[in-house]
Amino acid sequence: xxxxxxxxxxxxxxxxxxxxxxxxxxxxxxxxxxxxxxxxxxxxxxxxxxxxxxxxxxxxxxxxxxxxxxxxxxxxxxxxxxxxxxxxxxxxxxxxxxxxxxxxxxxxxxxxxxxxxxxxxxxxxxxxxxxxxxxxxxxxxxxxxxxxxxxxxxxxxxxxxxxxxxxxxxxxxxxxx
Length: 177
What we know:
Layout: E1 18-20, H1 23-48, H2 76-98, H3 102-106, E2 109-113, H4 122-137, H5 141-144, H6 155-160, E3 162-167
Antiparallel strand pairs: 1-3, 2-3
Helix pairs in contact: 2-4
């Protein structure tokens, strides 16, 4: 029987403090991102578009995988901008500068290159983002894959050569009075 594989060493924490970011932790991070994006976007839409109409089709809602509001009835080219361009720009900027989205940051998760443990390249970030669509296309199987993979990689991670690491919290520091 093989010993459990350790995540690559990383600049983000000592190796003994790292583990792969698991399925439910990543789901929760994605939900946090979705709520935060909605809180940012809805007031902005109300100011620019006015009364926002929601679709009533069952199963519609904000997409956690790409942070888009696909059920809003937004006129013309603004729809493309709001649902696809703006989420991509926001996510990619967070990845480029923080190696994580706000939800991942809140949960001590970081995205790193699977081989080196360092920050992924811009090409890896682009492949990872486009891989979200592939992960979601087949009944979300690419995201569900995280729960079964030994490195907790979704299809988008495998395509981009990335892993999500969880930095274990340190014990609280006790101060003497």
